[in-house]
Design a protein that fits this description.
Elements: H1 3-32, H2 42-70, H3 75-98, H4 104-129
Length: about 130
């Protein structure tokens, strides 16, 4: 697998994750009969925030992976970053979407996401200047 093919794999996987999160918002919206906004409903607020957090973080990581793919970074690095970030985002979504407060899934998912974004940013700088 080439670096750009590995990157494209994660673009596809995160596209599927984003679709699942979007469908979950629609599912909660329909079950709660909330047409617009959050209806001051906690389940609706959680579903919206889970999707919103992904919308904030996923593009940053994908831009980084695309950069690494174009700079022909090692495929193993791209897989390590993409897989770890995907696990982090799923843990975050389950943790935030399923329970009030900072559950373990939300906490671990957030930490994994932050660490992967930091490593990705550093790797982008490293491969760009070397």
């Amino acid at each position: 697998m080439t670096p750009i093919a590995a990157t494209t794999l994660y673009i596809g996987l995160f596209g599927l994750l984003m679709m699942i999160l979007k469908l979950n918002v629609g599912r909660v919206r329909a079950s709660k009969k909330i047409n617009l906004g959050d209806g001051n409903d906690e389940a609706m607020q959680r579903a919206i925030r889970v999707q919103g957090n992904a919308v904030e973080d996923v593009p940053v990581l994908l831009f980084g992976l695309v950069g690494l793919g174009l700079l022909e970074a090692p495929v193993l690095l791209i897989h390590a970053l993409g897989t770890t970030f995907l696990i982090g985002r799923v843990l975050h979504a389950v943790g935030l979407g399923g329970m009030p407060g900072a559950g373990i899934g939300r906490t671990v998912g957030t930490l994994l996401s932050l660490i992967v974004i930091l490593i990705t940013a550093g790797a982008c700088v490293w491969y760009a200047v070397n």
